[in-house]
Amino acid sequence: MAEHEFDLVVIGGGPTGENVADRAVAGGLSVALVEAGLVGGECSYWACIPSKTLLRPAAALGQAKAVQGSAQAVTGVIDARAVLRRRDEMVAGFDDSGQADWLKGAGVTLVRGRGRITAPRIVEATGPDGATVTLTARLAVAVCTGSVPVLPPIPGLAQAQPWTNREATAAESVPDSLVVVGGGVVACELAWAWRSLGARVHQLVRGPRLLAGNEPFAGELVAAALREAGVDLRMETETVEVSRVPGGERTVRFTTGGRSESVTAAELLMATGRRPATDGLGLEALGLGTAALADVDDDCRVRGVAGGWLYSVGDVNGRAALTHMGKYQARAVGDTIAARSRGEAAEPRPWTRWAATADHRAVPQVIFTEPEVAAVGLTEHAAREAGLRVRAVEYDLGSVSGATLFDPGYRGRAKMVVDEDRQVVVGATLVGPGVGELIHAATVAVVGEVPLERLWHAVPSFPTVSEVWLRLLETYGR
Ligand SMILES: Cc1cc2nc3c(=O)[nH]c(=O)nc-3n(C[C@H](O)[C@H](O)[C@H](O)COP(=O)(O)OP(=O)(O)OC[C@H]3O[C@@H](n4cnc5c(N)ncnc54)[C@H](O)[C@@H]3O)c2cc1C
Ligand SMILES: NC(=O)c1ccc[n+]([C@@H]2O[C@H](COP(=O)([O-])OP(=O)(O)OC[C@H]3O[C@@H](n4cnc5c(N)ncnc54)[C@H](O)[C@@H]3O)[C@@H](O)[C@H]2O)c1
């Protein structure tokens, strides 16, 4: 059994782990990164990258069709085979050698294997051949193991071999039909993607609306678009049983409004949420429960671990399960561990480089459905729940002149949530084609706590969709 010593051992080489390692090396530390699967993680191969690649052609086509002139140039339909080929290119054919080379170039030692913490600062990595390497971390261990899908205990589900995000982003052909269970981001994006590529899609949603964590109009506009695109969208359903003809179609039985109904399709995607990937990590050997990795300070250091050597970063800590937020936390963690090795306190005071402060109230997210949903900060409801005295204003995005230019039939909505006591924006939501590229302006306003008085002087260019910020301020009363 080989033994090695490094300043920092990172477990998990997704976007979070890669960035922790990179920042720590840049800060002068020696770093080993243990990866059980593909370097690049879920995001690169089975999540963000392939799903957005599957979604992009429908958005591009929609924009081309939206205006006279280019609409006439569109004479065909989406070439699904070409889309799947591009998806394959974007995931590099599930070959992570490019990312492994990047790690090498960054000065990070890659250890292929499954990491397990066996004692404080000791990680055992078991490789695909069963060989074990023991890694000693002089300073710290950063757990960046991400998340895995949750499959609810529905009778017959396991035997029916449903898709999770992995199969749903890696499928080699378009299924004739697909049932999607779930109303969250994964469900909506992938229902939209496969519908746009030609599958007949049924979507079974448990609650009364889609995208429940967002402003209600976001889910309403996405639901309307999905229906318009031909998705059979059912709300207030409870999936009770799944069955499958051996090797054949899946039938999902569900209840809705007191009735029992069923749908049958070639494939079934369960998009029913994710949980932290903590199985087999050895936390129990440290006297820690699986929930311990969610109990972190703003520097992502796990609370209550003697010596403070354990960090939990990215999806696994459950603070903000998004790639950009995992990478943001990673920058803070890599810098913090390096600074502390130099004897600096690197206290995670709010808005210092040592703290992932934005996790609390300034998380941006773009949902790549059509229309897109882009949001940052608090919804009106969440702000009120947090005890803020807020006033919210809304504006019809379709009446902004830049939007009319973009698409004469532009449909969308914008909302700005203002903290009345501090006169700053604490949340914003935009729904409409192409709004994903607009949200960063709002993120800057929320993080910068820019007073409305000053925001008034941030003049949006004419004729862009960004003029909505002026209209929102006018609606507010400027
Ligand atoms: C379908 C889908 C689409 C998404 N789209 C977006 C999007 O558009 N934008 C966005 O911001 N977010 C998106 N997300 C969320 C995003 O994928 C995650 O937030 C992101 O991947 C988290 O990065 P991570 O590095 O923390 O974890 P992961 O990417 O999950 O990486 C964790 C890594 O750890 C490895 N690992 C696990 N356990 C061990 C172990 N014991 N030893 C060694 N290695 C281990 C895994 O093999 C994996 O490589 C999407 C998620 C899904 C499911
Ligand atoms: N574009 C993006 O930023 C993007 C895209 C995809 C995923 N993600 C992230 O990945 C994470 C996971 O997304 P997700 O959609 O899997 O989870 P989610 O928590 O957003 O949604 C889960 C959905 O499953 C439903 N559900 C749960 N149990 C159910 C059951 N037994 N029967 C029927 N429905 C059930 C819930 O009601 C909810 O609608 C999220 O944090 C999300 O932000 C981000």
From TrEMBL:
Q: Which cofactor does it need?
A: FAD
Q: Which InterPro entries match?
A: Class-I_Pyr_Nuc-Dis_Oxidored, FAD/NAD-bd_sf, FAD/NAD-binding_dom, FAD/NAD-linked_Rdtase_dimer_sf, Pyr_nuc-diS_OxRdtase, Pyr_nucl-diS_OxRdtase_dimer
Q: Tell me, what is an example of a GO biological process annotation in this record?
A: 2-oxoglutarate metabolic process
For this protein, what does the record note about how its cofactor is bound?
Binds 1 FAD per subunit.
Residue intervals of the Pyridine nucleotide-disulphide oxidoreductase dimerisation domain: 363-469
Q: Which family does it belong to?
A: Belongs to the class-I pyridine nucleotide-disulfide oxidoreductase family.
| UniProt-recorded name of the protein | Oxidoreductase
Protein species of origin: Nocardiopsis ansamitocini
